[in-house]
């Protein structure tokens, strides 16, 4: 399915949202959502070096400290500190080495994957994973083998990612002409959104041409925030029939849109097929966090985006879509949407939030 190509992957500087370049930045986000389904938010912090303590004292006397701190924060693109990201990465890689690497090797041996023949394997992925639920209720304390320090930083990281996801949803509302809060309110349902993190490691693979790190798929949910390894690559997206590498960048967050946003936007924004190519050298870390609708949220095209256009997507309860997705994840999304049309009559219209 397509060749691998190199194109200019969209990288967006969120620090420009509140300045003179807001409109051009919003246009970049719009283009990325309409034509890519992905974009990357780097984290660039500009450090100021004070050569003299007298200069600091002068700032204090001039009451400039609060101004300086405000400027410093605005120069952080996605708002998540490097220190926190480095700590999450450190604990994630240590946990894999200590608790999961040997299990993965045993799984590979048990399935005979260490002696791959010449035929491609299309029903397994070359990955080691575990999943953490954050909302509506966290299960992080129930996951075995996680150290206390790891649990603490993952909770802190999840809080920051939740803020970023909700900020991005507001920006999407602006670009789509939706009322502020529309997407968040649709996601909420009656119990609030669901939010969780898939922690993955992709170990070195002896024959990456015969097995994928993760098979091609679109994501079922809402907005996905990925903190990926900056040294070992592998993530690709499908654009115009060609596979495009998603460049690893240190301290960046890769954003992609799930099926639910395609439905709500009536197809203006698209979820996009993506995959992970296994590598022969190095273990690739991937921490993907999914900010999704609540289980009972009713998903349907926003009326303002249907006005004058055909409504081509169904109305359904998110939990029903997830049940269908579980068995069809690696298939095309269109048959899933068609299957949900047959369930529209079962949707209780009284549960739809009027926004």
UniProtKB/TrEMBL annotation:
Keywords: Iron, Metal-binding, Oxidoreductase. Residues 193-293 form the Fe2OG dioxygenase domain. SUPFAM superfamilies: Clavaminate synthase-like. It comes from the Eukaryota. The keyword Oxidoreductase applies. Belongs to the iron/ascorbate-dependent oxidoreductase family. This is Fe2OG dioxygenase domain-containing protein.
């Amino acid at each position: 399915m397509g060749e691998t190509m190199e194109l200019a992957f969209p990288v967006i500087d969120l620090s420009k949202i509140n300045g003179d370049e807001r409109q051009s930045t919003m246009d970049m986000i719009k283009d990325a959502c309409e034509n890519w389904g992905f974009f990357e938010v780097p984290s660039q912090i500009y450090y100021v070096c004070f050569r003299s303590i007298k200069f600091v004292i002068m700032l204090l006397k001039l009451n400039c400290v609060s101004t300086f701190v405000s400027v410093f924060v605005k120069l952080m693109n996605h708002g998540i500190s490097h220190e926190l990201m480095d700590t999450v990465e450190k604990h994630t890689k240590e946990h894999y080495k200590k608790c999961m690497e040997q299990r993965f090797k045993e799984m590979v041996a048990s399935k005979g994957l260490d002696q791959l023949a010449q035929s491609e394997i299309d029903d397994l992925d070359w990955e080691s994973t575990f999943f953490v639920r954050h909302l509506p209720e966290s299960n992080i304390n129930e996951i075995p083998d996680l150290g206390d320090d790891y649990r603490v930083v993952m909770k802190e990281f999840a809080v920051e990612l939740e803020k970023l996801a909700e900020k991005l949803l507001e920006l999407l509302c602006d670009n789509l002409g939706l009322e502020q809060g529309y997407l968040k309110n649709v996601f909420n349902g009656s119990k609030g959104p669901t939010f969780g993190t898939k922690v993955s490691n992709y170990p070195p693979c002896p024959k990456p041409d015969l097995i994928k790190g993760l098979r091609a798929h679109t994501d079922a949910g809402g907005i996905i925030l990925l903190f990926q390894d900056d040294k070992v690559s592998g993530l690709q997206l499908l654009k115009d029939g060609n596979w495009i590498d998603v460049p690893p960048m240190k301290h960046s967050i890769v954003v992609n849109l799930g099926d639910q946003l395609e439905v709500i936007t009536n197809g203006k924004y698209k979820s996009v097929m993506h995959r992970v190519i296994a590598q022969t050298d190095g273990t690739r870390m991937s921490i993907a966090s999914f900010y999704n609708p609540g289980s009972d949220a009713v998903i349907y095209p926003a009326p303002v985006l249907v006005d004058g256009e055909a409504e081509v997507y169904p109305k359904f309860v998110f939990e029903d879509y997830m049940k269908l997705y579980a068995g069809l994840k690696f298939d095309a999304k269109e048959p899933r949407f068609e299957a949900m049309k047959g369930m529209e009559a079962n949707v209780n219209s009284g549960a739809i939030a009027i926004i």
